[in-house]
């Protein structure tokens, strides 16, 4: 009996170790959203995200969102009113369809929502957003830069029909209101 | 004993003086310490590129057709046809700013972009300024003059700037009264 006890104990121990290792490996697989591509430049970040690892393709069809020249300007220097706009917002997911694109000023919430209509790309020029989004300019140094006014963080998100999403995170500084 | 200490102090002093002299010579020989400037000038305008290297490759800023127009009595607007600048190879544009009479009026942040193009109507109707009376800037028939500076910077540390002046139409102070008919 004692002759069998030691091999059985060793076998049981091996089983336990194997299951623990398998469990640890499965635990490392992310069940939530997974970032497929990410780039950073100073305060700006852009990324492409899959909802979960199981649907993440090797090569995502959705691209980075183009949101060049985030602009904040003060039309009238005697009023604490600035406008934020982008030269354009553009994203493509061909051959998948674009479902939505949303621009958000983090302090104010969503400011623009664009819905796709059987389209594989989406292009929104600045003049589709009117004069831009009205915000307070703020006093000198209000946003952390001593020569500028308020700073506004923004997020632009786009989602395609394959469930992939792309997002831009940035900050735009406004000129200070200096009456 | 005192001679020993004296020798030690003398050696320390000599080493210190030699080190300082070497650092001074090295600093003078460093060509990167003087920024180079490429500039072009006309009567009232100047554009330049500043950098720490000998061959700057950020472009000049394009800011054609600086315009001041009188939209209504006392209210003028300044605008440009467009503003445009390109970064040097493999660099991104960080920002471009517009200042009028030393007041910052627009700030453009780059977002992973090697060039920046701002069409004039992105500022529509323009930057509001006072028109001024006739001859306010020394030019008969015209109003105030405004100095503007447009600056751009890229990730490689290079900068470009445009300096110019735009003069507004004069305020003639014509007010159209409503036409009222007698009953």
| Number of E-state strands of chain A | 11
Radius of gyration of chain A: 25 Å
Name the overall outline of chain B: elongated
In the sheet with the most strands of chain A, the strands line up as 1-2-11-10-6-7
Q: Which radius of gyration of chain B do the C-alpha atoms yield? A: 27 Å
Helix content of chain B: 10-25%
Short note summarizing the structure:
The complex is a heterodimer of chains A (179) and B (183). Chain A is of the alpha+beta class and 179 residues long. Chain A is built from one helix and eleven strands.
Task: Please specify the SSE layout and strand pairing.
The complex is a heterodimer of chains A (179) and B (183).
Chain A: H1 2-28, E1 34-41, E2 44-50, E3 70-73, E4 82-85, E5 88-92, E6 98-105, E7 109-115, E8 121-125, E9 133-135, E10 151-160, E11 165-173
Antiparallel strand pairs in A: 1-2, 2-11, 3-4, 4-9, 5-8, 6-7, 6-10, 10-11
Chain B: H1 2-29, E1 36-41, E2 46-51, E3 67-72, E4 75-79, E5 82-86, E6 93-100, E7 103-109, E8 115-119, E9 127-130, E10 142-154, E11 159-169
Structural description of this entry:
- The complex is a heterodimer of chains A (179) and B (183).
- Chain A is α+β, with helices and mostly antiparallel strands.
- In chain A, 15% of the residues lie in helices and 39% in strands.
- Chain A contains 1 helix and 11 strands.
- In chain A, the strands form 3 sheets. Chain A has a 6-stranded antiparallel sheet with strand order 1-2-11-10-6-7, with no helix packed on it. In chain A, strands 3-4-9 form a 3-stranded antiparallel sheet, with no helix packed on it.
- In chain A, strand 3 and strand 4 form a beta hairpin.
- Chain B has 183 residues and is of the alpha+beta class.
- Chain B contains 1 helix and 11 strands, in the order αβββββββββββ.
- Chain B has one helix at residues 2-29, and strands at 36-41, 46-51, 67-72, 75-79, 82-86, 93-100, 103-109, 115-119, 127-130, 142-154, 159-169.
- In chain B, strands 1-2-11-10-6-7 form a 6-stranded antiparallel sheet, with no helix packed on it. In chain B, strands 3-4-9 form a 3-stranded antiparallel sheet, with no helix packed on it.
- Chain B is elongated and about 120 Å long.
- Chain B starts with a helix and ends in a 14-residue tail after the last strand.
- Mean pLDDT of chain B is 84; it is low at 26-33.
- Chains A and B meet through strand 3 and strand 11 of A and strand 6, strand 7 and strand 8 of B.
- Strand 3 of chain A pairs antiparallel with strand 7 of chain B.
């Amino acid at each position: 009996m004692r002759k069998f006890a030691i091999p059985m104990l060793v076998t049981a121990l091996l089983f336990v170790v194997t299951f623990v290792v398998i469990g640890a490996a499965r635990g490392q697989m992310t069940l939530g959203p997974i970032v497929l591509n990410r780039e950073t430049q100073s305060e700006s970040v852009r990324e492409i995200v899959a909802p979960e690892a199981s649907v993440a393709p090797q090569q995502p069809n959705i691209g980075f969102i183009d949101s060049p020249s985030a602009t904040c300007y003060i039309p009238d220097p005697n009023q604490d009113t600035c406008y934020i706009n982008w030269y354009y917002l553009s994203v493509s997911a061909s051959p998948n369809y674009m479902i939505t694109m949303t621009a958000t000023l983090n302090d104010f919430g969503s400011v623009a929502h664009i819905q796709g209509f059987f389209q594989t790309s989406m292009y929104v020029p600045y003049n589709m957003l009117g004069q831009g989004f009205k915000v307070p300019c703020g006093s000198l140094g209000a946003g952390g830069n001593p020569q500028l006014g308020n700073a506004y963080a923004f997020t632009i998100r786009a989602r395609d029909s394959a469930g992939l999403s792309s997002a831009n995170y940035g900050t735009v500084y406004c000129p200070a209101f200096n009456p | 004993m005192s001679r020993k200490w004296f020798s030690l102090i003398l050696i320390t002093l000599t080493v210190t003086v030699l080190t300082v002299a070497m650092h001074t010579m090295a600093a003078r020989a460093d060509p990167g310490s003087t920024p180079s400037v490429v500039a072009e000038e006309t009567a009232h305008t100047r554009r330049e590129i500043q950098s720490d290297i000998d061959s700057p490759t950020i472009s000049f800023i394009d800011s054609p057709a600086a315009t001041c127009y009188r939209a209504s009595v006392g209210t003028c607007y300044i605008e440009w046809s467009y503003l445009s600048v390109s970064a040097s190879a493999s660099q991104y544009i960080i920002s471009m700013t517009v200042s009028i009479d030393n007041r910052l009026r627009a700030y453009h942040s780059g977002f992973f972009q090697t060039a920046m193009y701002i069409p004039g109507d992105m500022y529509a109707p323009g930057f509001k300024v006072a028109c001024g009376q006739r001859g306010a800037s020394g030019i008969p028939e015209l109003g105030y003059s405004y100095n503007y500076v447009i600056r751009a910077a890229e990730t490689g540390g290079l900068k470009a700037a445009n300096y110019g002046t735009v003069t507004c139409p004069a305020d003639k102070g014509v007010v159209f009264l409503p036409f009222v008919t007698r009953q």
